[in-house]
Amino acid sequence: MLDRIFAALSDPTRRAMLARLSECESLTVSDLAQPFDMSLPAVMKHLGVLQDAGLVARSKIGRTVVCRLNAVPIAQATDWLNRYRRL
Predict the structure, then answer these.
(1) Which of 3, 14, 42, 59 is the most buried (most CB within 10 A)?
(2) pLDDT above 70 as % of the chain
(3) Would you say residue 25 lies in a domain?
(4) Strand, coil or helix: what is 58?
(5) Residue 70 domain-assigned (yes or no)
(6) What is the pLDDT of residue 58?
(7) SS (H, E, C) 35-46
(8) Half-sphere exposure of residue 50: CA atoms within 13 angstroms, side-chain side
(9) Total count of domains within the chain
(10) Residue 68 covered by a domain
């Protein structure tokens, strides 16, 4: 799981998406995609990587897809990194 978390965090667009989600309880895919100069399918691919890493949860309300940040995997990555902090 750590491999997926770090792979998801390696991309600046995905980090920016997580930063936006950290400021709001939830955002629709359209709202999340708004500041990025890319197609909606490209945004969905990034969200898929974030979801596979467990960093984002998506739910559908009617025809609207809503995204929420899941901080548990970030805590797992932080715990792993903290073991090497003294080095």
Answers:
(1) 14
(2) 100
(3) yes
(4) strand
(5) yes
(6) 96
(7) CCCCCHHHHHHH
(8) 27
(9) 1
(10) yes
Radius of gyration of the chain (CA): 14
CATH of the domain at 45: 1.10.10.10
* Residue-range definition of the domain harbouring residue 35: 2-82
pLDDT of 85 = 87
Average pLDDT for residues 24-46, to the nearest whole number?
A: 95
pTM of the model: 0.91
Is position 61 within any domain? yes
Separation CA 1–CA 21 (nearest Å): 21
Amino acid sitting at position 66: V
So what's the pLDDT on residue 87? 80
In this structure, how many other beta carbons lie within 10 angstroms of the beta carbon of residue 87?
A: 4
CB 71 within 8 A of CB 54: no
Distance (Å, whole) CA 17 – CA 12: 9
